[in-house]
Specification:
By secondary structure, this protein is an all-alpha fold. It has 3 helices and no strands. α1 packs antiparallel against α2 and α2 packs antiparallel against α3. Keywords: Membrane, Transmembrane, Transmembrane helix.
């Protein structure tokens, strides 16, 4: 009997890992797709609005670089759960440094954009 209950526990543990890892995987793929869109938009902006004031072009450049950094950090977080700690359910409660940095960087980007809108 213990063999059967152990197998059931492993299946339940595997399902809980899949429910945790799945959204991280899909979110990371969507993030990279949106990054491609952002690259095209940034290129288009600099081609069409080359005569904008330097402060606005600098703001666009800084936000673009911050978004690239955020994408790298999000990918590191996904790598932590999907590769480095794969299959170890006990480590699902552990957050990598990148998971802590994501809200901080999002707040910085949001503050910059909202300040520009208020200006």
């Amino acid at each position: 009997m213990p063999f059967i209950s152990n197998g059931v526990e492993e299946v339940a543990e595997s399902a809980s890992i899949a429910y945790f890892i799945g959204p991280i995987f899909i979110g990371n793929i969507l993030n990279w797709m949106l990054m491609g869109t952002l690259v095209v938009q940034a290129y288009s902006y600099y081609q069409r609005f080359a005569k904008d004031r330097i402060i606005i072009r600098a703001l666009v450049a800084v936000l673009f670089v911050l978004d690239i950094i955020q994408t790298v950090i999000l990918t590191d977080c996904a790598w932590f759960f999907m590769v480095r700690e794969w299959g170890q359910a006990k480590n699902l409660g552990t957050l990598p440094w990148s998971a802590v940095m994501i809200p901080c960087l999002s707040g910085v980007v949001a503050a910059m954009v909202q300040t520009f809108y208020a200006w």
